[in-house]
Task: inverse folding
């Protein structure tokens, strides 16, 4: 598609647009699009509302954006606040701010930091999280899952091939220059889930009803009702596993 034949649009101050097809979209003030937006690139350093879908090759949110429909993008970076009401499809999502998806999200790669909430299912080839708070109310499904937990995290169900869940270090809070008491509290990270299923599983500070895998390692601070494993099972003496079963295939 020849985006260069499209016009650029820049919203400064309080202004509205009918929406439509654009090349580059820039929102510095308070911009409202009254219908869907299709563009090559969007950047908002102010407040942006799209009363429809957003389809873009790439985008950067340094301010805030509220998308009342669905979001489709190749690469999207969030340093501010983003809310999407519809299903979201992003090949590469990098979020360091506050991101809320009120439906499902599918991706090739998700790098979630800050605050990350998904009300539906989250499907990705690779999923990495250093989130202060993460809340996924559906299924997290990815080939490679790597989660560092800091604050309170909740995922309804987790499925993948390689699953690593570990407590994060205090260094992230030192970089953020947070006060020591907050560092102490937030580093008591934990994750709560119903079910974890995968091939290679390593868990720390995780509370789960059931964990099923080929090779399962239960590290520090876990509370698990049931572990089912095919080959190997290891449990840290600081964790509680109420029942473990070896599955014969």
Result:
């Amino acid at each position: 598609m020849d985006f260069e034949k499209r016009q650029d649009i820049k919203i400064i101050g309080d202004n509205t647009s009918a929406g439509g097809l654009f090349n580059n979209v820039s929102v510095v003030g308070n911009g409202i699009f009254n219908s869907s937006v299709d563009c090559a690139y969007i950047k908002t350093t102010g407040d942006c509302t799209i009363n429809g879908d957003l389809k873009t090759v790439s985008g950067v949110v340094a301010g805030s954006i509220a998308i009342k429909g669905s979001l489709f993008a190749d690469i999207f970076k969030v340093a501010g606040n983003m809310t999407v009401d519809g299903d979201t499809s992003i090949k590469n999502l990098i979020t360091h701010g506050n991101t809320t998806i009120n439906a499902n999200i599918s991706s090739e790669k998700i790098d979630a930091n800050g605050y990350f909430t998904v009300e539906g299912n989250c499907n990705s080839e690779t999923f990495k999280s250093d989130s202060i708070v993460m809340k996924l109310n559906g299924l997290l499904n990815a080939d490679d899952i790597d989660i560092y937990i800091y604050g309170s995290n909740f995922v309804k169900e987790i499925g993948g091939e390689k699953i690593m869940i570990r407590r994060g270090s205090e260094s992230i809070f030192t970089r953020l220059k947070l006060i020591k008491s907050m560092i102490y509290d937030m580093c008591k990270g934990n994750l709560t889930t119903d079910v974890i299923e995968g091939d290679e599983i390593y868990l720390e500070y995780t509370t789960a009803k059931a964990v099923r895998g080929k090779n399962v390692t239960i590290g520090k601070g876990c509370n698990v009702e049931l572990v089912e494993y095919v080959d190997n099972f290891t449990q840290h003496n600081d964790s509680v596993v109420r029942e473990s079963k070896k599955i014969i295939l």
Remarks:
- The chain is about 5% helix and 70% strand.
- The longest helix spans residues 180-186.
- The helical segments are 171-175, 180-186.
